[in-house]
Design goal:
This protein is an alpha/beta fold. It has two domains: about 1-175, 3-Layer(aba) Sandwich (Peroxisomal Thiolase, Chain A, domain 1), CATH 3.40.47.10; about 180-320, Thiolase/Chalcone synthase (Peroxisomal Thiolase, Chain A, domain 1, 3-Layer(aba) Sandwich), CATH 3.40.47. The chain contains ten helices and 13 strands. The chain is globular, with a radius of gyration of 18 Å. About 50% of the residues are buried.
Length: about 325
C-alpha cells in the first residue's frame, strides 16, 4: 500500500482592518492607479492591537479543523511557516499548539518567507508518509506589516497580513486516482539573498529590521524559477499542463502570475487570483488563496491543483495535489 498525505480541510483568517489603495495614498506618496497598474493590488489587511501571527494562525487552524470534521486532539504534527514569528523563540507553532489544546505532538516553525508554506507542506508530507505522524496542520501565517518601512512606497504597498491552514491525513491507497499530494519540488539559491531581504536580525543588528527589495530583479527571477519548478513537478507525475484544473500561485504580483501562466501556456481562467484583495501575505498567500477557492466552490474533490511560490532567499517550490 502507498501512503499519501490527503488534504481534508482548509481554513484562513484575516485581520479586522482592511486598507484600500486610497487609504495607502494618504500614508505614502502613491495612488490607486500606480499600485493597480504595477501590482494588481487593490486592498490588504493590516493586523491591529492583539492580532499576531499566532492568533491569525490559530483562527485559520480552527477553521481548517472544522472543515475536516476533526478534533484538535487528533493532530500530532504542526508545521507553521512564517517570517514574522511572535517571538524569536519559542516557535510560533508551539503557541498555536497550546491554543488548540493538542500539546504533546510535534510542533515547529519553517522559515522560507513566501515559499514557506510549500516548504512546510513538503516537510509535513514527508513526515506523514514515513509514519512520524498521522494527522498534520500545515499553516502559513504572517504579520508582515510589522516589518515594513512605511516610508518606502515600493514595498509597503505590496504586503498584507493573514493566515491560511490545511489539515493533512496519512491514508493508505493503491488507487491511481486517489486523493493526496502527488509530488513536491523545492529549491533555494542564497546567491540572490541581497535582492529581497530584511535588514536586521537577532544575530546581526539585534533589531527586527525592515523589508528591502529590488523589485525588477525579483520579477525576472520569479518568472523563470516558477515556470521551471512547475515543469519539474509535471515531469515527476507524468502529467501535462492541460491536465491541471487549477493553479494556486503565491499572490505576489498580478504581472508575475500572468507571465508565469503564459510561459506554461496555462489559460488565465485556471489561475486562482486573490492578490487584488489580500496583497502579498508571504507564507500565508498560497493557503489563503487555496481556502478561498475551495470555499467559493471553484476547487472541487478530484481536481488536480498545482501550488507554487517563490520568496526571499531565494527559495521557490511547487506541489501538485489531487483534492
Amino acid at each position: 500500500m502507498t501512503i499519501r498525505s490527503v488534504l481534508t480541510g482548509t481554513g484562513s483568517a484575516l485581520p479586522k482592518r482592511a486598507v484600500s489603495n486610497a487609504e495607502m495614498a494618504q500614508m505614502v506618496d502613491t495612488s490607486d492607479e500606480w499600485i493597480v497598474e504595477r501590482t494588481g493590488i487593490r486592498n490588504r489587511y493590516i493586523a491591529g492591537e492583539g492580532e499576531t501571527t499566532s492568533t491569525l494562525a490559530t483562527e485559520a487552524a480552527r477553521k481548517a479543523l472544522i472543515a475536516a470534521g476533526l478534533d484538535a486532539a487528533k493532530i500530532d504534527l504542526i508545521v507553521l511557516a512564517t517570517a514574522t514569528p511572535d517571538q524569536t523563540f519559542p516557535a510560533t507553532a508551539t503557541i498555536v499548539q497550546h491554543a488548540l489544546g493538542c500539546n504533546g505532538g510535534i510542533a515547529f516553525d519553517v522559515s522560507a518567507v513566501c515559499s514557506g508554506f510549500l516548504y512546510a507542506l513538503g516537510v509535513a508530507d514527508s513526515m506523514l508518509r514515513t509514519g512520524m505522524a498521522k494527522r498534520a496542520l500545515v499553516i502559513g501565517a504572517e504579520t508582515f506589516s510589522r516589518i515594513l518601512d512605511w516610508d518606502d512606497r515600493t514595498t509597503c504597498v505590496l504586503f498584507g497580513d493573514g493566515a491560511g491552514a490545511v489539515v493533512l491525513e496519512a491514508r493508505d491507497s493503491d488507487e491511481a486516482d486517489a486523493p493526496g499530494i502527488l509530488a513536491t519540488r523545492l529549491h533555494a539559491d542564497g546567491a540572490h539573498a541581497c535582492l529581497l531581504y530584511v535588514d536586521g536580525g537577532p544575530s546581526t543588528t539585534g533589531t527586527v529590521g525592515k523589508v528591502r527589495m529590488k523589485g525588477r530583479e525579483v520579477f525576472r527571477h520569479a518568472v523563470t524559477n516558477l515556470a521551471d519548478v512547475l515543469r519539474e513537478v509535471l515531469d515527476d507525475t507524468g502529467l501535462t499542463a492541460d491536465q491541471i484544473d487549477w493553479v494556486v500561485p503565491h499572490q505576489a504580483n498580478a504581472r508575475i502570475l500572468d507571465a508565469t501562466a503564459r510561459k506554461l501556456d496555462l489559460p488565465p481562467e485556471k489561475v486562482v487570483i486573490t492578490v487584488d484583495q489580500h496583497a502579498n501575505t508571504s507564507a500565508a498567500s498560497v493557503p489563503l488563496a487555496l481556502d478561498t477557492a475551495i470555499r467559493d466552490g471553484r476547487i472541487q474533490p478530484g481536481h488536480m491543483v498545482m501550488l507554487e511560490a517563490m520568496g526571499g532567499g531565494f527559495t521557490w517550490g511547487a506541489s501538485l495535489i489531487r483534492i
